[in-house]
Design brief:
2 copies of one chain form a homodimer. In chain A, 29% of the residues lie in helices and 30% in strands. Chain A is built from 9 helices and 15 strands. In chain A, strands 2-1-6-5-3-4 form a 6-stranded antiparallel sheet. A 6-stranded mixed barrel of chain A has the order 7-8-9-10-13-14. In chain A, β11, α7 and β12 form a beta-alpha-beta unit. In chain A, α7 packs across α9. At the A-B interface, α1, β5, β6 and α5 of A face α1, β5, β6 and α5 of B.
């Protein structure tokens, strides 16, 4: 996932290596920023309206407004994709509170708005065939319903994630699981799909997958304790960048029989069809 | 507190309006950054060794290393102060994980290191004479022992702070108070000074003030419940930018008799003497 040659910054498409963010940007000095990631499918952004809705919602929770219409953003993304020439891409939109000369106050009317594209993030095929692992940490994201740029706990746990051969870290708090650092988390119990519903970011792909599950499975949203998660028949994560990934181990606990189960296998297939044949 | 003409960025002093942070800086994209603020007293940085120690400690908690010696940093600060010509200044040091082309991985060997100076933050004299207010929020900072750039909860609560005529927001969690968003928090009960000791940033000025208190007061570090805080005889906050500020109201609760009490009055005087006559 390498950065591309051109990016969009505050109304203009510029060369990425000439794009300058002010050292007084409140997104840098105070972490006051939101973002969203969109995947392309067959060259075009997938679920862009849903991602834009979430991006605007995240911005609103910080008192910010995305300074462009959906149509304008779609045009910029099309232009960036054409100029940067990815086969497929991950599109990143970032909105900060803008420049803050005192490192504290900012004018919500002059936010910093960035759109950049990356080559696709490489997901090992083995994750889909044999399942992936999660480690767990007790943590609750600040303002979890917003996709803010605060990934302190995730980045600090990167070495532990790598050491465990895990794909991500699953957060739990007060005995209940919420989400992975970069993905939504779900379990399957007796063929019922269960989704944590509080203290989580609304998942774009996750929501699609739950809809695909509802065709012939019960889907229940509600609290899931960590011990329920560990005792699940199957588990999976979803993210725009990775689609549906089966989870077969959480810390040292084997989920189900440790192989990719039938419900997750079916949901992976349905999700791929929805993305690539939809 | 306006930004000055020159700043230091990665080894060089440059014009602030020409200084460029990469849009791929992980401090911007993932909030992965720490900072520290130092106040000048009579033109020179006050408690610089203590601030540098804290800054290095914060950096270490994120797996980062400040890429300069104390002597080099002191020289840069002296140079910036001379060029920017403040009467007195607030010095801001910022360290991020550096440029991350994929918005995820960064090389801790190439961090982004910034030093900037601001004119002094204006603190109304009335706060010292009549005391200030705090509002409260249930919140626990992520990695509270590090001074990270994550101030989401503070900035989101700015309108509420302003509306209440408050100076800051006091955080409590699980029934216990910790610190204000931008200051340490202490109470006085029966002339004993009490300091929360867990889940708080080590205060540079706070530590100095506790030492000044120990001369003739008992000082106890330990958990302080919110109800103990509200029932205190006196309360105060400390920060490099503001020194000792008496707190006479927390939300709708009057602290003590609502005026600046004798212990805080004495500590304010001692702190000023230590800063300006020390």
């Amino acid at each position: 996932m390498l950065a591309a040659r051109f990016i969009y910054l505050n109304g203009q498409i510029v060369l990425a290596d000439q794009a300058a963010i002010s050292p007084f940007d409140v997104g840098l000095l105070r972490g006051y920023a939101v973002f969203d990631l969109v995947q392309t499918v067959k060259g075009g952004p997938f679920l862009l309206p849903e991602h834009l809705e979430r991006f605007r919602s995240s911005a609103g929770m910080l008192g910010l407004t995305v300074p462009a219409t959906d149509e304008e953003i779609a045009t910029v993304i099309g232009d960036l994709l054409a100029r940067n020439g990815h086969a497929e891409a991950t599109i990143r939109m970032v909105l900060t509170g803008g420049v803050s000369p005192d490192g504290m106050c900012y004018d919500p009317k002059t936010p910093t708005f960035l759109i950049m594209t990356h080559d696709l993030f490489d997901v090992p095929e083995e994750y889909y065939r044999r399942g992936a692992r999660l480690i767990t940490r007790e943590h609750r994201r600040e303002l979890p319903e917003a996709k803010t740029t605060n990934y302190l706990t995730w980045l600090r746990n990167h070495p532990a994630i790598d050491e465990a051969g895990a794909i991500d870290v699953l957060y739990h708090f007060g005995g209940y699981v919420s989400e992975a650092a970069t993905a939504s988390f779900y379990i399957v119990r007796n063929r019922t799909v269960m989704a944590p519903d509080e203290g989580v970011l609304w998942g774009t792909i996750g929501s699609l997958v739950l809809d695909l599950a509802r065709v012939d499975h019960e889907v229940i949203s509600g609290p899931i304790s960590l011990s329920e998660a560990l005792a699940a028949n199957e588990a999976f994560i979803t993210s725009s960048v990775r689609g549906v990934v089966p989870i077969v181990r959480i810390d040292e606990h084997v989920i189900g029989d440790g192989t990719v189960g039938p419900v997750v296998t079916e949901l992976m297939a349905r999700c791929r069809r929805a993305m690539y044949e939809g």
